[in-house]
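We both want to read discrete structure tokens more fluently, so let's practise on a single case. Would you write everything just below, so we can both look at the same thing?
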Amino acid sequence: MELRDMGAALWRQRLLVAVVVVVTAIGVAVGVWSSTKTYTATATVSAAPAPGAPAPAELDDLRATLAETATTPEVLRQAATRAGVDRSVGQLLDEVDARWVEGTQLIEITVADPSARDAAGLANAASFTLQQSDPTGAFEFTDVDPAVEPATYSSPDLPLAIGVGVLLSLVLAVVSALARDRRTYTVKDAHGVEAALRAPVLAHVAPPRSPTLQAMFTGTPAADVFRRLRLSLEASHRAHPPRLVVVTGVTTGDVNAWLGANLAISLASAGRRVLLLDGRLATPADEPLPEEPDTPGLHDVLRGTPWEHAVSPGPVDGLSVLPPGRAPASDAGAEPGDLLERRFGALAEALTRTFDVVVVIAPSLEERDDALVMSAGGSLLLGVVEGVISPEALAAYADRFVVAGVRLAGTVLVGHRAEALAP
């Protein structure tokens, strides 16, 4: 996904992003507030050489040893007693640290304790006890920087917690938004369809009240919609007008049948000799189509019946219809696609020699790949319903068309609102 697409997805899911950021921030704040706080206080003492002290190199070693003495159990017990702090030796060993600051005369004693007051008291008491416990007598001590009660806690680290919280909230917001957008975002306009399929949108139509509604009357809004679709389709094939047009949809439904039937009617009304071929082949176990006549159909033609015996006149002059027919019971379990792969190509050649245009109604791509088989040597017209398929899924269909060598003439974007057309 490109950054531009990611930005668009985040903008579409901006409410979710805001909710995730706020919830994560609250969670981090509650975690910091409810966690055990640790306060750190440091007392610094200077160990200057006393008169008659050893050489400087030896003094540095003594200072390092003296710092280690500050964390011995005996010194810590005395410091706790002096500070009035009730801590076990094990707790004191965990809380108190002392070190000689190399290159200086300074020794730092640091205490990390749940109480700010006790941290400062222990640090100062340990510094005093250390000065009193010097076994070498080689130093003169000065309290350079006594420990003071810290104003805020040192752990948890507030800047670090804020930084981690911000990073966590951003990661969670982006991941959640992209996951939800991928699951819920669907194509809703011509720009989205063209970007996903890399093919033009030839028409943007509203669905009819009934998928069997036919645009047979010239001058009506419905007829004008399909006249524009016909002109756009013909314009996309300027050099060679389409002879075989396979109409299908990406999702299950009757949109492809409605588009195919009315496109055929529009072509016939323009003076073309048109065959409307219903390629929605059914198996013996399938329910017959409600409009299916009890006559030979495509099933029979593919098995050797002359196509002339299966074609009947359509509802307008110049239009003929070839129904799907029914598979014989002996074909139970057989896939219609196998028969199409073997014999449809030769049939299409014969039909296009007789008719100006053959319009094929194919099953949706969600059901079967018959449309890809039947459109070999012709063009595919794809019906896409607004708001039902994601751009990624639509782009995957475009890749399938390329692999199958299918020429996608264009798409028809079908809206949600039904047309107010007279039946």
